[in-house]
């Protein structure tokens, strides 16, 4: 029996979370605590690849985003994007990753996001929806791929798949002053390949806060049963005390189980 019967649950770690984090991940995977690892591949961390490969845990790669110099929405970032992608592809190849998740970038334009993603010719690519805005070093940044229309455009023009981040969709709905459930169902109608989930400290947030499941105010019983089909892949993408504190993740899977019983 897996962590959440009827679903495939993912643990999110960064490629720099080696040593104790890897040992804890192996322990928990062997105990049936999760089904796959979603690994954020930090540029310049290829030296850590052998350790991740030795774990022999099914893997999905989360590509770098703007905080590590990868920004698909800007044409002037295209050369750097390609260099970073080449390293992400190495992670995906060596770990036999099923998918690579990409963010749409900040500022720029969604047409550029679609153009650059299509130019990678990456059959494992998934575009992840974002909040309309994010915060970095005290500055507010505009995110591409927040609206249903922008995600639909990337899917059509880049021919990729879709990762539906549920809190991101709720934050975008708040910013756009749209009904949260309507936006969530419109996003879900785009046939996501997989999902991201976190709690929220306030349902009116416009920037996601990655609150741990059960520590926020989201009424998960309101939307999880109507969004997640049996067998769905779902990464719990929340803040933890430390990457080694996977017992917090174990508690979150028990909380999630309550909302996914059929």
What does this entry look like structurally?
There is one protein chain. By secondary structure, the protein is an alpha/beta fold. Helices cover 37% and strands 17% of the residues. It has helices at residues 20-30, 49-55, 78-94, 110-119, 148-158, 166-176, 180-188, 220-227, 246-259, and strands at residues 8-14, 36-40, 59-62, 100-103, 125-128, 133-136, 139-142, 161-165, 194-197, 233-236. The strands form two sheets. It has an eight-stranded parallel β-barrel with strand order 1-2-3-4-5-8-9-10, surrounded by five helices. A two-stranded antiparallel sheet has the order 6-7. The protein is globular, with a radius of gyration of 17 Å. The model has no long low-confidence stretch (mean pLDDT 94).
- Number of E strands: 10
Figure out the total of helices.
Answer: 9
Multimerization status: single chain
| End-to-end Cα distance | 15 Å
